[in-house]
Amino acid sequence: MRYFVAVAEELHFGRAATRLHMSQPPLSRAIKQLEAEVGALLFARSTTGVTLTPVGTVLLDEARALLDHADRVRLRVSAAAGVATITVGILGDGTDPGVARLAAAYRRNHPGVEIRVRDTDLTDPTCGLRAGLVDVALTRAPFDETALRVRALRSDPVGVVLRADDPLARREGLRLAELRDRRWFQFPQGTDPVWQSYWNDGRPREGPVVRAVQECLQAVLWNGTVGLAPLGHDLPVEFTVVPLIDMAPSRVVAVWNERDTNPLIRSFIEEATAAYRH
Fold first, then answer.
1. pTM score
2. Per-residue pLDDT reduced to its tens digit, 41-53
């Protein structure tokens, strides 16, 4: 059924095989065997790809329901065995209202699952996912997404964090070019280059090296360094955030390893998607 759903969603055997991390011939054989068991064609095949037949369309709804039920069964059995645990990495601000809604919903809907939280600094946007320290991460894009799956949850505009007495702090909006001559904070050597480039406007910068949000704020306070931050977060009165007119929004995302089939992660992603919609 998982093979069938993959082909039905991709409408291409090659892409479905890649998604399932298998070669195409055994996938094609499995679908033909399923069609033989059903007694009808599930896909109309052509040189341009495949389309669902009416029988295939009916089976797709049933297959998704069966797979969802199977995942719920595994969750309940794991919970009964006392082994239902998931480790979540959170980057930056754990007080985000989306996190609070997600935590409340997950406790309510999955009372038998223990959530372990790993709060991480700004040097690893995947929160230890690649190193196996967490099962899923709530973080911000962009970063290197190789071998990862990413679900966008929300987009936030970005502003520049300045001291309240900075002459630019009185502006209603700024462009990145107006900050060209300022010192910017840096991330340590080895930080994801895609992540570093986004927060440094894609060019080499000079400034202090920081690892955490509080270090960024202190760099602004003591050195007048340019700091960037998503809008909507309360800061001490010593700081002002001015919106950046030409800065691409910062995306809040959930990310997990593409080969991980743990049903706990799947349920977490769905809960996160719903929680961040509000």
1. 0.69
2. 999 988 777 999 9
